Amino acid sequence: MRKYIAEFIGTMTLVTLGCGTAMLVGCNAAFGGGYILTALAFGLVIVAMAYSIGNISGCHINPAVSLGVLITGGIKLQEFLCYIGAQILGAIVGSGLLSLIFDLGAVEDKTGGLGSNGLAGVNGSPIAGLLVEIVLTFVFVIAILGVTSSKAGHGSFAGLVIGFTLVLVHILGIGLTGTSVNPARSIGPALVAAIEGNFDPISCVWVFILGPLVGAALAAYTYKFLESSKK
Question: Alpha-carbon distance 104 to 43, whole Å?
Fold first, then answer.
């Protein structure tokens, strides 16, 4: 149970601080400051959570990462399903907190949808959006699997590598899809935005569920192949 509570807290923190930063500063590529701040916020949350809950749950805080770990044998199916439930619930609560804070403080949400993902950067093309999310998630998950491998010997540096890899994929992805690489991070804001009456994010949320899961599976099978070839 402690693992699932840790995943809930970690995902709630990721959405609250990452999406909250995007809502506050905006993430339009034409204004580089907000763009970079948003990328850094998501990456730095991962660094913080890796060193606080990593020893409890592994700090997946992302169904795509959990899928990669499942495929490579790090967790069992039942554990995987519980991880996903905790992550999605944490993302929903984090989005609810943001909605409450911004409403009570009368603060403008510069994303228009609680930091939810969208397809505006790829001219509304779901195929382009899927491809972006598959590629970005592949890079993110294969980096995680490599740096956390017991044979890699990176140890205490793993959290930094993972966090800055997330910053890296955000730098490319924000202007295209807002960068998901995390189905829970997309489901939470889209669902709460829909409850508030903005149904646009929920209409394309399937892209940000399917894309990251496919990218994670490809990364996991690729890593397994590379590792077995090395043996």
Answer: 27
For residue 180, count other CB atoms closer than 10 A to its CB.
Answer: 28
Q: Do 125 and 30 contact (CB within 8 A), yes or no?
A: no
pTM beyond cutoff 0.90: yes
How long, in residues, is the chain?
Answer: 231
Report which residue type is found at 51: Y
**What does the pLDDT look like over 182-226, one tens digit per residue?**
999 999 999 999 999 999 999 999 999 999 999 999 999 999 999
